[in-house]
Write a structure and sequence with these properties.
The chain is an alpha+beta fold and about 150 residues long. The chain contains 3 helices and 7 strands. The chain has one domain: Alpha-Beta Complex (Nucleoside Triphosphate Pyrophosphohydrolase). Helix content is about 25%, strand content about 25%.
Length: about 150
């Protein structure tokens, strides 16, 4: 495998904030494994893109694999280089979509899946930058501003 193909396999990650109308988001408690980025932290479900896969396709596939929930039309929220000291840099693309209230959700990866209220997010171990992105998702989704916390 040449360098560009190998790099393409490991440097792009897609994730989805599944939002309820009350501002809560579905978060996944990551496993407690050595070598796992954001281990034991609550994050939106997602994962690495496959070779030639678009980011929306990646995010939908990863979300389905991890939750058994099939996302509708995703809204692109933000894309940036995720810089975590001691970890390889990758491009993270985060989307948001409203929860349809119909489909069930099953935890197929990680320790647990849970809808977390934005007002209670400080009680969870969530990377700080994800809280700011969650707030951005709430703004883009035109949800009431009272759900947005100014940390």
């Amino acid at each position: 495998m040449n360098f560009l193909k190998e790099k393409n396999l490991i440097d792009r990650v897609g994730a989805v904030f599944l939002l309820r109308r009350d501002g809560a988001a579905l978060l996944q408690l990551r496993d407690d494994k050595p070598g796992l980025r954001h281990a034991r932290q609550w994050v939106p479900p997602g994962g690495h893109a496959e070779l030639g896969e678009g980011m929306e396709e990646c995010a939908k596939r990863e979300f389905l694999e991890e939750t058994d929930y099939s996302c509708g039309d995703l809204h692109c929220l933000i894309e940036f280089e995720d810089l975590v000291p001691g970890w390889p840099v990758y491009t993270l693309t985060i989307f948001w979509v409203f929860y349809d209230g119909i489909q069930g959700i099953i935890c197929n990866e990680g320790q647990e899946l849970r809808f977390v209220s934005r007002n209670e997010a400080n009680q969870y171990s969530i990377p700080d930058y994800l809280l700011k992105i969650w707030d951005l998702a709430l703004i883009q989704a035109n949800l009431k501003r009272e759900f947005i916390i100014n940390d």
